[in-house]
Write a structure and sequence with these properties.
This protein is an alpha/beta fold. It has 14 helices and twelve strands. Helix 1 packs parallel to helix 13 and helix 3 runs parallel beside helix 4. Bound molecules: 1,3-dihydroxyacetonephosphate and iron/sulfur cluster (SF4).
Length: 298
Amino acid sequence: MKEKIKKLLKEKNAILLAHNYQPPEIQDVADLCGDSLELSIKAAETDADVIVFCGVHFMAETASILSPEKTVLLPRTDAGCPMADMVTPEALAAKKAELPGVPVVTYVNSTAAVKALSTICCTSANVIEVAGSLDADEILMTPDRNLAQYAASKTDKKIHLWEGFCPFHDTLTVEDVERARKLHPNAVFMAHPECPPAILAIADEITSTSGMIRFAKESDHTEFIVGTEVGLIYPLEKENPGKKFYPASLTMECADMKKMKLEDIVNCLENMTGEVKVPEEIRVPALKAVQGMIDLAK
Ligand code: 13P
Ligand code: SF4
């Protein structure tokens, strides 16, 4: 199956991008695995004709926003992000009317229509930098309340929260972490900023998924408790032979990220199905928000 995918990718001049939470066999066949920021940058820069996105819907939309001339395929069009659905363009427009002049920072885990109403986007890798780049004393951050509270703890700006959350990161409890720390007393605890403030308060390191891979590589420690979706254990182990990684909780498994199968990639490449295309009237304003974030990363 993997050979078939490689052959099809070549035939169609296609590139396969996979998020760090994707199943191992998909990460193994991908041209690039990464966090949301790395994947967005690659989607903007590739010269392939086709981008096959192994992740969830908003990620493929971001690729379409950045590369409208390319065909963007999402092998499982039913792979969504519950957090992204917690803010609608209508609700955001109403909130903006309550906060006139306040810039809107939107987490990339959001629909293109919501990005189109935003000043700038951010990911878990650059939220502090993005918030700091705005010449404003107040910011509305959407949709993740935990990411927003994390940003609020690092800036003097007033952050207006949106009550969205990731159902998997948000359920991690202090008791879960304490239990893992008792079992692995020498382990360092890494947490994703989608986790609640009480978790971030006891974390040794707070960073994005790729940030965790880099941190583990550079650290002298050899054991780590991983406070993010359990799929990250695979690239952590692959990139760090000899080091040990323990999930903070086994319930942190994103069902949407796990929908993708190798067969889905073969089908979508053979039939060129699962295209995600953002209409121009949404793409153009959304691009301003996404490009603003990418330009900051340069
Ligand atoms: P990052 O890979 O950008 O840290 O994001 C995590 C996530 O939840 C993506 O849906
Ligand atoms: Fe969305 Fe959470 Fe899944 Fe990431 S892990 S795609 S934020 S539901």
